[in-house]
Each structure stands twice: as C-alpha cells, then as structure tokens.
From TrEMBL:
It comes from Planifilum fulgidum. It catalyses: L-proline + a quinone = (S)-1-pyrroline-5-carboxylate + a quinol + H(+). Its cofactor is FAD. Signal peptide: none annotated. This is proline dehydrogenase. One of its GO terms (molecular function) is nucleotide binding. FAD binds at M132, Q162, K186, G187, A188, K200, T225, H226. Keywords: FAD, Flavoprotein, Nucleotide-binding, Oxidoreductase, Proline metabolism.
Length: 306
C-alpha cells in the first residue's frame, strides 16, 4: 500500500475527520462519487446516465453487518431497488455484497437472503451481480453463486472475479464451463503475497488472460477497468477474434472517467456505470480518495470555495 493511500485511510479513521466529512462531505464533493443518500436520488442520477447512453448497476452502500436484523434490512434494500427500477423504467441492474447479507453471521442465512434477491431479479426480468470481497470469502461466495446460478440462470445472476488472486485463472475456467456472466476486476483488498500477485504488471497480465479466456469460451464478460491500456487492448482483442458486442461490456465507477465512459458509449460500446448510493457512503468515499491524489485535490478545492 502506498504511503499516500495509507495516510488517507489513517486520517479517514480519525473520529473528528469522520464526523466532519459525514456532516459536510456530500456538499463538498462526495456527491461526485456517490449518487445520493436515498434510492429516489439515485434513480434520478440513473436517468441522467441513461440519457448519455450509459447503462447502470446500482449498489446500496454498507459495510459488513453484524446482526441478522441488519442483513435483512440490506436484503430488503436490494429488493426495493428492483421495484424502483421497474417503476421508473430506467436501464439498470443491481450489485450486492454477501457480507452485507450476513455471510459472516451464517452461511445458510446469507444464502437464503441472496436467493430472495436472485429470485426477485428473475421475476423482474433483471440481473443481480454478486461482488467479490477479500480472499477468505472467495470460496463461500463462489459456492453461493453456483447454487443460485442453477436456480435462476446466467441471464439473471453474475459474479465478480479479481485478477490479482492466483486462484482466479482456475476459477474462470471452472465458471466458464457453467457459462457464467463474470465481471473481471483487478482487486482492491490488501492481500498477502501467498494468495495474490504483488506486482501490478502481473495483475494486469492476468487480467487480460482472464478476459481473453472467458470471451473465447463464449461467455459474457464485463471488463471493469479505468485503465486505458487495457481498454485499448480489449478493443483490439475483440476485433481480432470476432467477438460480438453483445458478449461483453465495459464497466466503470460513478464519478470516475465520465468523459471516457461517454466516449466509449459514443463509439458503440456497451458501458455500465457502477453507481453507489446510501447513507453509509463514508467508507466507500474514503477509498475513492485514497486511490487517487487528484480526488483529494477535488475535495480540497470545494472546501476552499465553500
């Protein structure tokens, strides 16, 4: 972890800083990365993104829960998103994290909650993607995904795979045999070198290897990156291998590289924007700041203006 990233995350953990940013952050710049605190606000942002030719996946923010009540509330929030999408007519699907649904409390309980969401996705004619978390939770996450894939089908549920994990090549091969819809990401958790590539170059090469493998297997692939080199590589790869545009999409974060998102959409590529919302936005927001110094400067400029 870089010194600047470590410094930002340490500062973000300070109680006074947390209190100040939570109170004023949305007005000072957090709204660049978070589409509001309510579902209604997020739906309005989705409408705007759709008008720009962009697709969306909505995520109700929240960290790991510690009680069954919290997990049930998170489950209901995901179900509510499907209803709001249907009522508003926006083009969006849903993303969820299993620790929000009780994975750390009880596997069976989490599976029940995730099944409710998956069945709602199928009933709504929509799609839900299970986000991948840190390495100790990978196996359980894949197991739950496989169980629900059999029940609702690949048209309604997908998974995320992280290219910095050594095991991911084997996982993509295995999931490819099931025709799984995968989002490929580099990975954002701090992992030991025993389970993850420590060198960025190896992470990037494995990323391209996983994308190529899954596309050649004829499986839908979401290429989730802001790395222009990998985006250009993907564009060349699909052209050279005759991969149809209905077999892949690019994905990026809300508030990050908006110009590039619209440019790709204008070129005829499918682009989906990961759009988070909710009152528990502070941890997500601090990670966006830690990722890139320019994001911190953006907030400081707004603070000075205010």
């Amino acid at each position: 972890m870089s010194l600047s990233r470590r410094a930002v995350l340490t500062l973000a953990g300070n109680r006074l800083v947390s209190r100040f940013v939570t109170r004023y952050g949305m007005r000072l710049g957090a709204s660049r990365f978070v589409a509001g605190e309510t579902l209604e606000q997020a739906i309005e942002k989705v409408k705007s993104l759709n008008r720009d030719g962009l697709l969306v996946t909505l995520d109700h923010l929240g960290e790991s829960v510690t009680t069954r009540e919290e997990a049930l509330e998170a489950t209901q929030s995901a179900l509510d998103i499907f209803d709001a999408i249907a009522e508003s007519g926006v083009n969006s699907n849903v993303s969820v994290k299993l620790t929000q649904l009780g994975l750390d409390i009880d596997y069976g309980f989490c599976l029940e909650n995730m099944e409710r969401i998956a069945l709602k996705a199928k009933e709504s004619g929509n799609f839900v993607r299970i986000d991948m978390e840190d390495s100790p939770r990978v196996k359980a996450t894949i197991d739950i995904f496989k169980t629900l894939l059999k029940k609702v089908g690949k048209e309604h549920i997908g998974l995320v795979i992280q290219s910095y994990l050594y095991r991911s090549e084997s996982d993509v091969k295995d999931l490819g045999e099931l025709g799984a819809n995968l989002r490929i990401v580099k990975g954002a958790y701090k992992e030991p070198k025993e389970v993850a590539f420590p060198d960025k170059r190896d992470v990037d090469e494995n990323y391209k290897r996983l994308v190529a493998m899954h596309l050649k297997n004829g499986c839908y692939t979401a290429v989730a990156t802001h790395d222009e080199k990998i985006i250009e590589w993907t564009k060349s790869f699909v052209k050279e291998n005759g991969i149809p545009k209905d077999l892949y999409e690019f994905q990026m974060l809300y508030g990050v590289r908006g110009g590039l998102q619209r440019q790709l959409a204008g070129e005829g590529y499918k682009v989906r924007v990961y759009t988070p919302y909710g009152k528990d936005w502070y941890p997500y927001f601090t990670r966006r700041i830690a990722e890139r110094p320019a994001n911190a400067l953006f907030i400081l400029k707004n603070l000075v203006k205010d």
